[in-house]
Here is the input.
Amino acid sequence: MPVEGTWDLAISTPIGTMNAVVDLYAEDGVLNGTAHGSGEEAALGDPLFAGDRLTWSQSITKPLRLNLTFDMVVNGDTMTGKSKAGRLPTSKVTGQRRTA
Here is the structure.
Protein backbone atom coordinates (compact mmCIF):
# COMPACT_ATOMS: atom_id res chain seq x y z
CA MET A 1 0.00 0.00 0.00
CA PRO A 2 1.41 3.41 -0.91
CA VAL A 3 0.82 4.86 2.58
CA GLU A 4 2.76 2.19 4.47
CA GLY A 5 5.61 3.44 6.61
CA THR A 6 6.37 5.63 9.60
CA TRP A 7 4.95 9.15 9.51
CA ASP A 8 5.90 12.11 11.72
CA LEU A 9 2.83 14.28 12.34
CA ALA A 10 2.50 17.83 13.64
CA ILE A 11 -0.99 18.69 14.93
CA SER A 12 -1.74 22.39 15.48
CA THR A 13 -4.11 22.44 18.47
CA PRO A 14 -5.53 25.29 20.57
CA ILE A 15 -2.97 24.41 23.28
CA GLY A 16 0.01 24.31 20.90
CA THR A 17 1.58 21.97 18.38
CA MET A 18 1.46 18.30 19.35
CA ASN A 19 3.82 15.83 17.70
CA ALA A 20 2.94 12.21 17.03
CA VAL A 21 4.27 9.26 15.08
CA VAL A 22 1.95 7.03 13.06
CA ASP A 23 3.03 3.60 11.81
CA LEU A 24 0.94 2.28 8.91
CA TYR A 25 1.21 -1.27 7.56
CA ALA A 26 -0.85 -3.69 5.50
CA GLU A 27 -1.64 -7.13 6.87
CA ASP A 28 -3.41 -9.58 4.55
CA GLY A 29 -4.38 -6.63 2.33
CA VAL A 30 -5.93 -4.68 5.23
CA LEU A 31 -4.49 -1.36 6.39
CA ASN A 32 -3.59 -1.23 10.10
CA GLY A 33 -1.65 1.18 12.24
CA THR A 34 -0.64 2.60 15.58
CA ALA A 35 -0.02 6.13 16.81
CA HIS A 36 2.56 7.15 19.40
CA GLY A 37 2.67 10.46 21.24
CA SER A 38 2.63 12.03 24.70
CA GLY A 39 3.97 8.80 26.19
CA GLU A 40 1.12 6.59 24.99
CA GLU A 41 0.35 4.25 22.11
CA ALA A 42 -3.04 3.88 20.43
CA ALA A 43 -4.29 1.53 17.73
CA LEU A 44 -5.82 3.29 14.75
CA GLY A 45 -9.51 2.64 14.30
CA ASP A 46 -10.76 1.84 10.80
CA PRO A 47 -7.80 3.21 8.82
CA LEU A 48 -8.86 3.58 5.19
CA PHE A 49 -6.87 4.70 2.15
CA ALA A 50 -8.84 5.43 -1.01
CA GLY A 51 -7.52 7.46 -3.93
CA ASP A 52 -5.31 10.01 -2.17
CA ARG A 53 -7.37 10.22 1.06
CA LEU A 54 -6.39 8.56 4.31
CA THR A 55 -8.81 8.51 7.24
CA TRP A 56 -8.68 6.96 10.71
CA SER A 57 -9.88 7.42 14.27
CA GLN A 58 -8.10 6.97 17.58
CA SER A 59 -8.57 7.58 21.29
CA ILE A 60 -6.04 9.39 23.48
CA THR A 61 -5.84 10.11 27.20
CA LYS A 62 -3.09 12.78 27.22
CA PRO A 63 -3.23 15.73 27.48
CA LEU A 64 -7.01 15.11 27.63
CA ARG A 65 -9.24 12.08 27.12
CA LEU A 66 -10.41 12.56 23.52
CA ASN A 67 -11.70 10.60 20.54
CA LEU A 68 -10.01 11.93 17.41
CA THR A 69 -10.85 11.55 13.73
CA PHE A 70 -8.31 12.29 11.00
CA ASP A 71 -8.98 13.17 7.36
CA MET A 72 -5.77 13.48 5.37
CA VAL A 73 -4.66 13.87 1.74
CA VAL A 74 -1.48 11.95 0.89
CA ASN A 75 0.90 13.20 -1.80
CA GLY A 76 3.99 10.99 -2.02
CA ASP A 77 5.90 11.34 1.26
CA THR A 78 3.75 14.17 2.67
CA MET A 79 0.23 14.35 4.05
CA THR A 80 -1.93 17.30 5.02
CA GLY A 81 -5.37 17.50 6.50
CA LYS A 82 -7.28 17.90 9.71
CA SER A 83 -8.12 16.26 12.98
CA LYS A 84 -11.36 16.68 14.88
CA ALA A 85 -11.88 16.01 18.59
CA GLY A 86 -15.54 16.13 19.54
CA ARG A 87 -16.80 19.70 19.89
CA LEU A 88 -13.29 21.18 19.95
CA PRO A 89 -12.12 23.23 16.95
CA THR A 90 -10.65 21.38 13.98
CA SER A 91 -6.85 21.11 14.10
CA LYS A 92 -4.56 21.38 11.07
CA VAL A 93 -2.31 18.32 10.61
CA THR A 94 0.83 17.93 8.49
CA GLY A 95 2.89 14.78 8.11
CA GLN A 96 6.14 13.61 6.61
CA ARG A 97 7.05 9.98 5.90
CA ARG A 98 10.38 8.86 7.35
CA THR A 99 12.78 7.62 4.72
CA ALA A 100 15.33 4.85 5.21
